[in-house]
Amino acid sequence: MPYYNYEISSDTLFIPASHILHLDLIVENRIYCEGKHIELIQLEDLVNNHLYRAIDKDTIFFVSLHSERAATYETYLAVKDVVLTQQKGRLNELSLQIFGEPYSSDMHVSRKRILRQQLELGLLEWTLNDSGPQLVETRNGLW
């Protein structure tokens, strides 16, 4: 898989993604997932963890390093139309909310799995409003 450069050229960075990708194994700064590898680029230290952006074409996934020696990573929710703001060349804000509550890496894995299934089934969707991206139920949703 080739390496894709990703440069921030404006004040706002829009990240197109719509699902959670399960990332298993890290080897020499590469994530191996279903036979493919994705390069990692270190971002700012946000949400009390070292965040990385894994770039595969136009999709960016956020992953959290649990320990310095860990070989497994847990993905942050990769979302559609998430906005990161940039000031003076630094990414300084990650605003994800689920029903008004900040999304965090502490959210239980089973809760994330349920959210992923609901996103895939079209019961939930991401929307962008004045307070930032929020996960809301669709008209078909029963949440």
Task: Describe the structure in your own words.
This protein has 143 residues and is mostly beta strands. The chain has one domain. Helices cover 8% and strands 47% of the residues. It contains 1 helix and 13 strands. It has one helix spanning 109-120; strands spanning 12-15, 25-27, 30-33, 36-46, 49-56, 59-65, 73-75, 82-87, 90-94, 97-98, 101-102, 124-129, 132-137. The chain has a 6-stranded antiparallel beta sheet, with no helix packed on it. The chain is globular and about 45 Å long. 17% of the residues are buried. Mean pLDDT is 41; it is low at 1-105.
What's the helical proportion of residues? under 10%
Element order: H for helix, E for strand: EEEEEEEEEEEHEE
Return residue spans where pLDDT drops below 50 for at least 5 consecutive residues: 1-105
Radius of gyration: 15 Å
Q: Whole-Å distance between the termini?
A: 39 Å
Q: Mean of residue pLDDT?
A: 41
Shape: globular
Query: In total, how many domains does the architecture comprise?
Result: 1
Largest pleated sheet: 6 strands, antiparallel
Structural class: mainly beta
Question: Which strand order does the major sheet show?
Answer: 2-3-4-5-6-7
Strand percentage lies at over 45%
By DSSP (H or I, 4+ residues per run), the number of helices equals 1
Number of E-type strands: 13
Defining key terms:
six-stranded antiparallel sheet, 1 helix, mainly beta, 143 residues
